[in-house]
Predict the 3D structure of the following.
Amino acid sequence: MATISRDAKSKEPAAKHVKAVIRTRPTADFAANYIKFDSDLKSTHIHIPRGSDGGFINNQQENWDFKFDSILHNASQEKVFDECALGIVKSVMDGYHGTIMAYGQTGAGKTFTMFVEAEFRTGATENYKHRGLIPRAISHIFKEISERPQMAFTARISYLEIYNESIVDLLISSPESAAAAAAAGEFHSDWNLNVVDDKNGMSYVKGLTMQLANNEEEALNLLFEGETNRSIAQHQLNKISTRSRVESTERVISSKLNLVDLAGSERISKTHTQGLSMKEAMYINKSLTFLEQVIIALSDKRRDHIPYRQSKLTNVLRDSLGGNCNTLMIANIWGVKEHIEETISTLRFATRMMCVANTPSVNIQYDPAAMIKKYEKEIRELKQELAMHDSLNNRSHIQYESFGETQRLELSKIVKAYLKDEIDELEIVSLRQVREYFTQFKGLYKTLEQERNDLGAAVKKSNASGIAPAGGLAGDRNLAIDEYSAARMLQDYDRDDCVGETESSGFSVGLAPTNGKDFQFRSNMKKKKFINAGNTGNAKTISTQILHGEDDDDVVYERDINSPSHQMLPALPKTSGNSNTIGHGKKAPVNRADEFENFKRGKGAEMNRILIENKASLKEKKRYAISLSTQITAHKSHIDELKVQIDSRRMTTTNASNSETIIDEEEYTLIDRLKSVKIAYREAVESLKGARGEITYIEKLVVNVRQKLMSEFEAWFEGSFGIGGGGDDNLGGNNGGMEDLMDIGEKFDRLQLEKMSQEDPDSLPFYNARKNTERRMLRVKLIILIKFTINNLKNIQKQQK
Ligand SMILES: Nc1ncnc2c1ncn2[C@@H]1O[C@H](COP(=O)(O)OP(=O)(O)OP(=O)(O)O)[C@@H](O)[C@H]1O
């Protein structure tokens, strides 16, 4: 990962090539005879003997060799994230833009890699541990934020899809209208957004919603909300999502992370198998062709025009391709024999991608208002530190603020008393006070000088006239002494060594030497003191939000598992009995609950297993959260107790006359203990936050899997027994199974929707989403965009040193 100092400061940003990583979809039919990976896990060799029954390939060529940054063969989601995304996500936190895009043919695993299979397809990927790069990146980002307390972060999320060359904002309230309009090719400024340039020449989508995400949970909510909106919209669109922005003081580092799930890359001839309309297929095909054209243009050094503006997709991705960005392409391949042609084509495209050079650099902006805020905060913190430092060094009474009139008068009295020898020493406590002394001496000196001049003039005059001056020259001996002392004092102060040595701790105000001639530091305070300026040690407010009573949910989930008929099934009327025979010789079930149990043991077994697994991990997480919550409560009451003890100790040791707090050993021990309990408290709160994020995530998965299980059951049930399970042959005798039913098309959809709206109107969106997925439109899919503005002045300064 490049460092800030190197790229931001010392020289021009270094050019980097787009990285390409190959990921294979695990399959039992892997064409190992044709596809070989070298042991370096970077090179692949494809050999298709001419004349083999795989004559589907250009029969002039038998061998293909490719080299990539890495090949992830049958790799886990965790490994893919660690090897591909982690570096880029971290560099985003340091101010670099990052893009990760998944490319490959339909079914090769792009969505699996990027997302979490939120489209309710196969249950297996809905498991938490199978979550893809996007939720992992979000999680990592917020973890990094929590580990960088010296920086201020603002994370904003946006989520969009590109469909038929329309950009649809998935975080607006009515994405379905947007998608409908997009599908109809209509233009509407609210949802057909445009890509424009900002003042730095960077592209952005004008009008795109940027929602604030304060934590992982909120970011995931937006992600799921966008996914849900997309499902409701019933269209497979290009998506751009999550954008987080982090802002703070004098330097604002702004970076974004694009996570892109591209369309299936197969050629248009294949699209008919996907149930895709020709218009959609053409748009998608065009979109990817333009992407390819851009990549070709970028890899050709002689080309000076890059056709980014030909399509929304390339325009949105402009910065990521040949711009200021760390870009990685994950080329997903499905290494079975029948897809070898698509595999070669994907590998070719990924190789071309690697020829694209980018110039990533830290994105720094300056914000004067934020700078002032930062300085104010720093000053506040330094003052607190100083106060603490003073109190630990028996240096109370120190004032760092400007002196007011009353204080100046006081000081002037002290100076006069000193000059008149009424006091022997001046107590020096701060630089500001020393300056004030100087001002006083200077003032007195000037007054005396003026008086002396006046007197001299008067004496001269009186000598000339023989009249004594009013008051007489010798009449005010004190003033004369004052004048002398002041002059001597000023001389002494002009000497370098008079102010005092620097303290060993590095505190720069300095103490007067105890053997100083005129100024002696009076160390008459033996006890440790705190300035009464609030809690200088632990100034930060600690959040006390605690998770309680989460166990209730567990009870519900338990019931779900044990009694699905109560929790998971809509309250349909039961059918009349075992012996009812319907149109095609199928038996009506006794009731849906029994059939549901059968379904869970048979066709829905895998889904049910995942549901149970997810619930178990949800339960475990909740238990963990509750134990954290208990710890937090215990820490909190411990903190309160210690505070009470400290307060009462303080009451007994406070000197009422000067309102200083004197700390004795016992109070010190209490404060020390308080500090460690607060640390433990904060740690528990942080862990709880993390656990809550995971809980939310898993809860969503549980809901999704549960809905999926139920819907599959419904479909199976209707396919097997007819609507309502009572042999109602509404489908004209063609209700022979789920696959067949799907082919009936609109008639079936209409009947099913009617039925669902009667039984459970809330489930309509889910059914719509499911239908949408089952039709398997070819997609130009997901782009996730995470944008950061990071306040890390301290870091930058450190690194630049
Ligand atoms: N690495 C993997 N491990 C386990 N299952 C996988 C993996 N990759 C893909 N799959 C499974 O293969 C199927 C197709 O994957 P996926 O939907 O992600 O493909 P895709 O490339 O996004 O296709 P499309 O372009 O249609 O969206 C899914 O059922 C998915 O769960």
In short: Residues 25-26, 104, 106-112, 117, 121-122, 125, 264, 332, 779 surround adenosine-5'-triphosphate (CB under 6 Å).
